[in-house]
Amino acid sequence: MRLSLACLAKPILHGYFRSSCSWRVRIAFALKGVEYDQLPVNLIKDGGQQLTEEYKALNPMQQVPAVEIDGITLSQSLAVIQYIDETRPGPHLLPADPKARAQVRMISDLIASGIQPLQNLYVIQKMGAEKMQWSQHFINRGFQALEPILKQTAGKYCVGDEISMADICLVPQVYNAERFKVDMGKYPTIKRLNEALLEIEAFQVSHPSRQPDTPDDLRA
Amino acid sequence: MRLSLACLAKPILHGYFRSSCSWRVRIAFALKGVEYDQLPVNLIKDGGQQLTEEYKALNPMQQVPAVEIDGITLSQSLAVIQYIDETRPGPHLLPADPKARAQVRMISDLIASGIQPLQNLYVIQKMGAEKMQWSQHFINRGFQALEPILKQTAGKYCVGDEISMADICLVPQVYNAERFKVDMGKYPTIKRLNEALLEIEAFQVSHPSRQPDTPDDLRA
Q1: Measured between alpha carbons, how far is residue A212 from residues A18, A209, A218, B111, B213 in Å?
Q2: CB B85 within 8 A of CB B79
């Protein structure tokens, strides 16, 4: 059996320290114990390095993250996370039971489709002075739905007592909520889960305050 | 072995004829040959029937679809589709190969997180007179990324020659694009795939023009 060079190479994450979708992927790599290289894409500098022709060839959506892995390039964080989960050993990021898997995906998609896209950089750049109010509105709207769902599904973590993709989505979204000054006191279940998850090393080493491209004044 | 009543019951789809996310679920049920009941939720009438307390208990996000299936209630169409795929016989909606699965999920999420949320009813209701221009902008932005990706992944359908979740996401998104008068001539691959898919019975019987809640003037 011959392994191709592409399969021997470490995955490359093209991301940005503060991008919540990049952070999701970093958590997944850390939980699975996968070594990877980071090539930072600064979303602000030079008018946005994601807008270059070079990066567009990697991810035509001109967003982070993009991941080069096993000879292919993937974008969309949940697709990347599930690919890592299906091809790497280590703890499963989705439970084996189909109903629990569905709940993990429901919570992940509520965040990834129902909240994050509406406070994404390229959207709020269009909102001008209203961007804080707009982002708060859609994060609160999502968290008001997420709170009762998590009350039903959560144990120690979002779905039962095992860490899953839902947790990987939750923590970066709470980080965004705090940036946009959302009052987390209204969401006791989300707050409790976030605090429990931030105790875990994989969530700490992947944190925006500890990345190669974290500016010095934001570094932990 | 005893089957619970919940497992014997037909799934119930709470949806809306013109909702692209409801249509996704209808296509999946049709492809898998699963019989289901529909309970229409009119997103316009009475200020929006999704906003009632009764519906909120079913889906706290107050969006369609919500699906009652096997004793649980699921929202988020891609979570529902993958649950159906993992628990029902019939053609697989995700390929067996991990790389192809990742490409299917990438394309599905590009639509479900990158395009659809930005032209969702509750967002464009906030845009007032600008809603047509706003929707066109974000659909064009997404399709400009999707076109080169599909050029690489597509065979007869979005990923290779088998119908997948990516196709289930594509067709309703093109339907939305046409409603918002996006020029589809700019996207020859998307256009070709959409036309091929609309030839298939599962995409026809699930079409917005043929649902129990389709108004007479929009009925095919």
Answers
A1: 11, 9, 12, 31, 54
A2: no
Among candidate residues B174, B194, B213, the one with its CA nearest the CA of residue B16: B213
CA-atom Rg of chain A in angstroms = 17
- What pLDDT is attached to residue B4? 53
Q: Find chain A residues with C-beta within 8 A of B190's C-beta.
A: none
- Which residue in B has a C-alpha nearest to residue A138's C-alpha? B123
Distance from CA of B98 to the nearest CA of A (A): 7
3-state SS class at B67: strand
For residue A71, report the phi and psi dihedrals to the nearest 5 degrees: 85, 0
Q: Which of A60, A76, A86 sits opposite B113 (nearest CB)?
A: A76
- Which residue of chain A comes nearest to B139, CA vs CA? A61
Q: Tokens at residue B150, please?
A: 């599909």
**Fold that domain B11-91 belongs to in CATH:** Glutaredoxin (3.40.30)
Q: What are the sequence ranges of the domains in chain A? A: 11-91, 98-203
Q: Which of A72, A78, A109 lies at the smallest CB-CB distance from B99?
A: A72
Contact call for B114 and A72, based on CB within 8 A: no
The reported pLDDT for the residue numbered B2 is: 52
| Residue found under tokens 């060079």 | A5
Interface test with A, best of B25, B56, B59, B61 (most A CBs within 10 A): B61
Determine phi and psi for B160, rounding to 5 degrees.
70, -150
**CATH of region A98-203:** 1.20.1050.10
Whether the Cβ atoms of residue B81 and residue B28 lie closer than 8 Å to each other: yes
Residues of chain A neighbouring B108 (CB-CB closer than 8 A):
79
Query: What pLDDT sits at residue A8?
Result: 66
Determine how many CB atoms are found less than 10 A away from the CB of residue A33: 11
Q: How many contacts (CB atoms, under 8 Å) link A and B?
A: 117
- Say if CB A70 and CB B100 are below 8 A apart: no
Nearest to A145 among B61, B114, B117 (CB): B61
Task: For residue B112, give the chain A residue with the closest CA.
Answer: A113
Tell me the pLDDT of chain B (220 aa) as tens digits. Answer: 455 555 568 999 999 999 999 999 999 999 999 999 999 999 999 889 999 999 999 999 999 999 999 999 999 999 999 999 999 999 999 999 999 999 999 999 999 999 999 988 888 888 888 889 999 999 999 999 999 999 999 999 999 999 999 999 999 999 999 999 999 999 999 999 999 999 999 999 999 999 999 999 999 8
Q: In this complex, do A75 and B106 lie within 8 Å of one another by their Cβ atoms? A: yes
